[in-house]
């Protein structure tokens, strides 16, 4: 069971509960929890990421919590792996039906701005909280933009998830590093072909 997370700010406002902030936390945790082999990262690493994304003390994460968070992260990858808006919406609908409770508003006892939750209570287990809060923010992103909220990196050997928060041409890579590596590889492959053709560049 997790502790209730509390946030206070001098002006009474916080961006920690914004859709984009929660989406960034989802992206970071999904990548961390599904990219460390079959057992996932150490509890200390997960706790560090939670603090980096606004979760405050007291904060306790144990091996059982990591296992629950990892299960949620693997389920959330289905949304990022979906091809097209309809498929992403269907994946979110499955998760919303399976792993969330009724929509409610909370201020965590007055220590944060009012914001929506889909978990059962403010002290719900980490895995339930993560799945519910991530489903909510990804649902809003798809609703607002009418496009998938993210995707899986196309770079061979990467597989990280990424968010599509901007406008313009849809992304294919999680970072400029992966995009540059693939662009260089494509250029080398093209030069190796008869005639030394030129490869195209993908937007990162």
UniProtKB/TrEMBL annotation:
Pfam families: ABATE, zf-CGNR. InterPro entries: ABATE, ABATE_dom_sf, Znf_CGNR. Residues 152-189 form the Zinc finger CGNR domain. This is Zinc finger CGNR domain-containing protein. It comes from Streptomyces kanasensis.
